[in-house]
Amino acid sequence: MSESRPVALDAMGGDHAPHEIVAGAVHAVRERGLPVVLVGSPRVLYEALADHDATKEVPIVRAEEALEMDEGALASLRRPRSSIAVACHLVRRGEASAVVSAGSTAGIVTTGKLRLKGQHGVLRPAIAVDLPTLPTPAVLLDAGANAEVKPEMLVQFAHLGATYAELAHGVENPRVGLLTIGSEAEKGDKLVRRAHELLQGSTGINFVGNVEGHDLLTGKVDVITTDGFTGNVALKTLEGAVRYAFAELRETISDSRLARLGAVMQRARLRELHRRLDPEAHGGAVLLGLNGTVVIAHGAARAQGISAACRLAADLSAAGIVPAIGEKMVSTSASRSHRLW
What we know:
The chain is an alpha/beta fold and 341 residues long. It has twelve helices and eleven strands. It has helices at residues 19-32, 42-51, 74-78, 83-92, 105-116, 151-169, 190-200, 228-253, 257-265, 267-277, 303-319, 321-340, and strands at 7-10, 36-40, 60-62, 98-101, 126-131, 138-141, 175-179, 206-211, 223-225, 285-288, 293-296. The chain has an eleven-stranded mixed sheet with strand order 3-2-1-4-11-10-5-6-9-7-8, sandwiched between helices. α1 (19-32) packs across α11 (303-319), α6 (151-169) crosses α7 (190-200) and α6 packs across α12 (321-340).
């Protein structure tokens, strides 16, 4: 049923909105066969669709306002008819299967919580991001929704991430690690040490212990749980390191004829490595724990990244990520009640 409903795409959010967003929508419809509805200013969007000769392929839903990229959470309250708010409203009314936006992360998180509400039993929604580990991506959360958390929230993030890893990546019994400054159980501040204790005693989750920053891309675990401040810093550090490494690689390849010849011989592998490390190829982050599927595309996403985000949102909605998290919350709540009894 969710597959027949369109993805609601916030056409006004992102560094390159609305033209790259519209181009991504057209690509998703034509190349991926996905139903997409654009949310934003009809006049602007109609003109952008006309550039692709796609005015009859992609419908438009009017939104009177838009959140600017530099606006924070409070802007969501001041603009109740923003494009991201209208997109969330479409999901809430059952007229769309999921929301995709490349707009302000703070605005998306706040609007999502206001319009879609948190799922029953979820203390805080969390942003989950795929890290390019092999053979399957590792899920890092929270990646920026909650700068300050309690130990119980870190445990819940672990459950959210494990459910996502199972559905999105087909990982059975995902291994969960807690991000801190040492592998020993006593390492870290009070928050992390208490979270470690709770994770050890939590049923329904495969907690394997602490992980450190150098473990993020090793495939040691399938899910990495942390607070939003630490997770966001870790994510952006990795993104910067990848950009630096590729810049150095390009310079090295261009240094000599022999290096260029080697690059030609390894072209296929280099392209695959670039695809695996390219954030746009994965679609974006997922805001877990709401009564609706929400995908946050990279703010600088171009058409291909927006199209990939639409694909990710449609796949997660069709796979039933929201009801799966609901079932997980019910089971963990029942397990806590049983232990207390």
